[in-house]
Amino acid sequence: MLRRRRITIGVLAASALAFFPLPAAYAAPDGGGVGDCKGSVSDICVIAEVPGHPGSGDHTQGDSDKPIGDTGDEPVCEATLMKPQPPATSDLWKGHKPGDGGIYVRSCLTGPDNAIDIFWAADPPADAPVDPAVLAQQAVDKMTLLGPDIASPQSAGKYTVGVPMWMWVNRSATSYGPNTASASAGAVTVTATAKVSKIVWRMGDGATVTCNGPGTRYQPSQGMAPSPTCGHVYDQTSADSRGGRYPLTATSTWTIDWQGGGETGQLTEIRQTNMTVSIGELQVVR
């Protein structure tokens, strides 16, 4: 027996359909046009074959018009986090940002109102199992992790071919760590701690320098010595580069360890800072 079911999913772009499985069914492209199943573009109208449940609840005397599958029992529903989450441009976010709550799919597989519902929620619904890994990502999103806060080299600095350049960064909770935040759902709380494990410097002249720490601050007493932890020596001026300057990027790898809900794990986040440097050369006056 065929029965009509309306699956309410809010304003759903066609591309978002790939994020969840629909029952074996025929869906009208415009939300209508199948029998008397009519609606706005915010609904999908489905004609689905619903198998009967074993037992006397399928058909009873005097209730021959009762659709197969309507047992009269309370619906059994479960909400699960949509994986992967829709892109930030999806209308499903209802104006919110990814990481600010989540998009869930609730399926009710018994009772007269069996349906699939897709919705945004700030916190996991009561009928959604708590995933500690999801809470860990929510904790990370609270941290506002940034790219390196470059102390040296400086954009306004003047640097010279053949002279060792010392590179180092300022350290703060948001630019270097450690940075700690927690997220909770129901009785589960997950705490995550993030810190920079390495910084990769792309110097603009084709060289790449990987530093496993913040670098060492230069002191005048060091003279022409190279940095013991993070440095580079240019062998060409930046005169032929765009604007007469080398484009320089410093990319941090944040390593995040989390625990909670009886589980532990590790996440990685990447952040980048861009700048330019001018490299000249000493002129010998004769």
Structure description:
With 286 residues, this protein is mostly beta strands. The chain has two domains: 2-127, no CATH class; 149-280, no CATH class. Helices cover 3% and strands 37% of the residues. It has one helix and 17 strands. The protein has one helix spanning 132-141, and strands spanning 2-8, 25-27, 43-49, 77-81, 102-108, 115-121, 149-152, 159-160, 165-166, 168-170, 179-185, 188-202, 208-211, 231-232, 246-260, 263-277, 279-280. Strands 11, 12, 13, 15 and 16 form a five-stranded antiparallel beta sheet that branches. Strands 1-3-2 form a three-stranded antiparallel beta sheet, with no helix packed on it. The longest helix is centred in the middle third of the chain and has 10 residues, at 132-141. It is elongated and about 85 Å long. The termini are far apart. Mean pLDDT is 77; it is low at 1-72.
